[in-house]
Amino acid sequence: MSEGTLYDKVWDRHKVTTLPNGQDQLFVGLHLIHEVTSPQAFGMLQERGLEVARPDLTHATVDHIVPTANQDRPYADDAAERMMAELEENVRDAGIQFSDPTTGDQGIVHVIGPEQGITQPGKTIVCGDSHTSTHGAFGALAFGIGTSQIRDVLATQTIAMEKQKVRKIEVNGELGEGVEAKDIILEIIRRLGTEGGVGYVYEYAGEAIENLDMEGRMSICNMSIEGGARAGYVNPDETTFEWLKDTDYFQEHPEKFAELKPYWESIRSDEDAEYDDVVEIDASELDPVVTWGTTPGQGIGIDDPIPAPEDLADDKQDTARRAQKHMRVDPGESMEGYDIDVAFLGSCTNARLPDLRRAARIVKGRQVDDDVRAFVVPGSQRVQRAAEEEGLKDIFEEAGFEWRNAGCSMCLGMNEDQLEGDEACASSSNRNFVGRQGSKDGRTVLMNPRMVAAAAITGEVSDVRDLKEVALQ
Amino acid sequence: MSDPTEEIPEVDYVEGTGIPIRGNDIDTDQIIPARFMKVVTFDGLGEFAFFDLRFDDEDNQKDHPMNEERFQDANVMVVNNNFGCGSSREHAPQALMRWGIDAIIGEGFAEIFAGNCLALGIPTVTADHESINALQQWVDDNPDGDIEVDVAAETVRYGGNEISVSVDDAQRQALVEGIWDTTALMKANRNAIEETAAQLPYLDQTRSDVEADD
């Protein structure tokens, strides 16, 4: 068992007791909720005559179903309107703070928590969404939960869990040109497998991780779940603290920053911490990664050949064959030159301001390919405003991108933004599952935001390193 | 299940007929496509389980075990590795449960999916690749054949065979003792919850009208 890791320390601080079933009961420091997975939980609470125990530690937003084009109420989609109305009623009745679109603070739940400073090191954070692992970038212990567990948290502000093992993933070396956080996590998942992290929490460490900005760390922790790990984290450091200082909470309560810093430092993994497993990755060997299949583990460097199923591990061959048939790719080819119809720059993985800035440097002065519909969906209203203020919106629009409002959008196609028929999409999101983007014949190629920009311009999967970047301003 | 006064049933044993769902990495988007999640209750989700694999664009049935007459009464699903990966949507096990599934035997399960199954009292038990393949084949040949999932003893019996399976310790204890619905269990520890909260340095600093316990 691990010892002295951030995971062990945060777990111990939040452990209420051991339950008769052998699970630990953990206190939840922050419960984030959204419109898709919470209504049934509120319903269960009502049936049992229970109230929300800690509305003050609960925060809501709307992201999955929110339209990104016309947001006038009532929403054009009746089902979306009903879900929104239900959430509004639930948060009003319970007295839960709600970052709805009228506040200017709305956005994807994993973008707004960090923005507002309520995501903090050493907190336990849960949400009915598997990408809650994102918040681990701050040294929080954060994981996705199901609706019955949301009921538990609403009713008790605690959750029943079993302690997991800790795998340290040490990423050393310097990232090459055009290579970024997204490529690191896609490589980790390719190497360790989509199920490799089951039973583990991932600690991301090493100089390549330490050198990342907070947004890059969020991209990595975000996709922990694609590797089977329910949670992933980075030990908080000066980069974390500097970022936190500028958030609402610490702007409003600057004294808290000094007060909490010792706690944040105390929960860092010890130098001599013990891990259940350690994996090393050399970041300098990486090229931009793209997926060729229908699981996030099916990635390759942009120049590499798509593997032959028979060359993969026995248990991966069948999945690979089905994936290659769906994607219509053949072993031996690279993904470079794969025709795309849609370019989607968005999602809780890669729709923060630095992501959009990097993509804009590729897009500036160029035109989206005639056969591609391209759009940008900022991760939050704040990202949207900031990007508009610094001229990114103009750059994207002049190039032929549509500039949308904040939401989950085409990452999972629960609103109007969906693939049609067998369209292929260059996507900065996190899942390339069959049907994920709204069409069961749709084809998703995951990649970093600059690579999405490059694909939008050329109309095919391209190596962004072949396109010159243009300085902004 | 929803009545608080109702006793939480013990799920130490599930018996019934099987349905094989083959393939590794079957994700929750396949189990229940997102467009069916635009609902505020779980009612009626059963008919949408595996929808895109069961029906074409014109809603005609495709080849899928869940469309086969011989599996319509099945309640034990037999799956391969990393079943239920992807999203945390409880809609996935809810859809399977409402279709009629009471237990799932597989090579491996994604963690959030298994946790969601436990919250519904659905055991997720695991066995090795060969045992699962053999069982899937047997179910294909014997759609009316009886399968007994003994959660307490960690065995599965079918057609004169007995295989040993693994059930995660906490899951087994929770199911066997009928303590898998954790709301009331945890709510009873009110004092301990408050003591833990009082020790958390960040708690008095949440942006709220209500102050922390201290």
TrEMBL record, chain A:
Leader sequence segment: none
Enzyme class: lyase
Cofactor(s), by name: [4Fe-4S] cluster
Keyword Metal-binding: yes
Free-text comment on the cofactor: Binds 1 [4Fe-4S] cluster per subunit.
Domain Aconitase/3-isopropylmalate dehydratase large subunit alpha/beta/alpha: 8-459
GO molecular function: 3-isopropylmalate dehydratase activity; 4 iron, 4 sulfur cluster binding; metal ion binding
Catalytic reaction(s) noted: (2R,3S)-3-isopropylmalate = (2S)-2-isopropylmalate
Source taxon at top rank: Archaea
A Pfam match: Aconitase
Chain sites annotated for binding [4Fe-4S] cluster: 348, 408, 411
Keyword list, A-Z: 4Fe-4S, Amino-acid biosynthesis, Branched-chain amino acid biosynthesis, Iron, Iron-sulfur, Leucine biosynthesis, Lyase, Metal-binding
Family: Belongs to the aconitase/IPM isomerase family. LeuC type 1 subfamily.
Record's subunit section: Heterodimer of LeuC and LeuD.
Function, as annotated: Catalyzes the isomerization between 2-isopropylmalate and 3-isopropylmalate, via the formation of 2-isopropylmaleate.
UniProt name for this protein: 3-isopropylmalate dehydratase large subunit
Lineage of the species this protein comes from: Archaea, Methanobacteriati, Methanobacteriota, Stenosarchaea group, Halobacteria
TrEMBL record, chain B:
Listed EC numbers: 4.2.1.33
Pfam families linked: Aconitase_C (PF00694)
Pathway listed: Amino-acid biosynthesis; L-leucine biosynthesis; L-leucine from 3-methyl-2-oxobutanoate: step 2/4
Keywords (A to Z) from UniProt: Amino-acid biosynthesis, Branched-chain amino acid biosynthesis, Leucine biosynthesis, Lyase
GO molecular function, one term: 3-isopropylmalate dehydratase activity
Domain Aconitase A/isopropylmalate dehydratase small subunit swivel: 15-126
InterPro entries the UniProt entry points to: 3-IsopropMal_deHydase_ssu (IPR004431), Aconitase/3IPM_dehydase_swvl (IPR015928), AconitaseA/IPMdHydase_ssu_swvl (IPR000573), IPMI_Swivel (IPR033940), LeuD (IPR050075)
The keyword Amino-acid biosynthesis belongs to this UniProt entry's keyword annotation: yes
Keyword check for Amino-acid biosynthesis: yes
Gene Ontology terms: cellular component: 3-isopropylmalate dehydratase complex
Top class in the EC scheme: lyase
Catalytic activity: (2R,3S)-3-isopropylmalate = (2S)-2-isopropylmalate
Source species, domain of life: Archaea
GO annotation terms (biological process): L-leucine biosynthetic process
Subunit and partners: Heterodimer of LeuC and LeuD.
Function noted in UniProt: Catalyzes the isomerization between 2-isopropylmalate and 3-isopropylmalate, via the formation of 2-isopropylmaleate.
Similarity remark: Belongs to the LeuD family. LeuD type 1 subfamily. Belongs to the LeuD family. LeuD type 2 subfamily.
Protein name, per record: 3-isopropylmalate dehydratase
Organism the protein comes from: Haloarcula rubra
Gene that encodes the chain: leuD
